[in-house]
Amino acid sequence: MSKYKSQLIVALVCCILGFMLAYQFRILNKNAGVSKVKETNTDITVELEQYKNQKAELQKNIDDLQKKVSSYEEAAASKSSETKNLLEEVKNTRLLMGAETVQGTGITIYINPKTKMLQNDVTNEQITDKHLVYLVNELISAGAEAISINDIRITPRTGIRTSGANIRINEENVSPQQRITIKAIGNKNLLNSAMSFPGVFNDFKAISDYKYETSDNITINKYNYGKSLKFDYAKPVK
């Protein structure tokens, strides 16, 4: 009897030791995984910071070059009235294309998405590309001369489309889960009247809190075209 009892005790001890070893291995693997994730996140953070610094440096170089171009243009314009008129046309074209930083009177719209109060709230209603396109159209109809969404300049070539969990504007992402700020420069009274018109924000009431305010000094940054504008199919009529 004592023989079987001894064997049973040995087997029980082995089971306990096996369980403890398995548990220890699991803890070690988990810690290793967490450590690996932390290292990966750190690497990504460092890489993003490097990209930001590179972007800032490139932007500085672009600004310096544009200042030189402006000085050359001003020097050329002073030589004749024809060159001066040509320079004015170039400036107007840049304004139209959003290639110049501008400031003036206008309106700022703040859209704050409503948070889901209950965990079982499975509604898919949220701000979409259609909401933003609608507001841009309303602002343009009210005479807005320059518009930006989250400091992304709206140009004649801008597309606003839902892309996955985000809204894609000029190859940049806007999250429908975070505050969206829309700036518009123009006659502030007309823009305010357009936004105050009954029904303009009807589609926003259930999904967001919103407000708008006029200002005498709004700045909208230029859009830096990442690639030269090239038309493969649209050709001028001779």
From TrEMBL:
Coiled-coil ranges per UniProt: 34-82
Keywords: Coiled coil
Alphabetized Pfam families for the sequence: DUF881
InterPro entries: DUF881
Key word Chloroplast present: no
Signal peptide range: none
Membership in a protein family: Belongs to the UPF0749 family.
Protein name: DUF881 domain-containing protein
Lineage: Bacteria, Bacillati, Bacillota, Clostridia, Eubacteriales
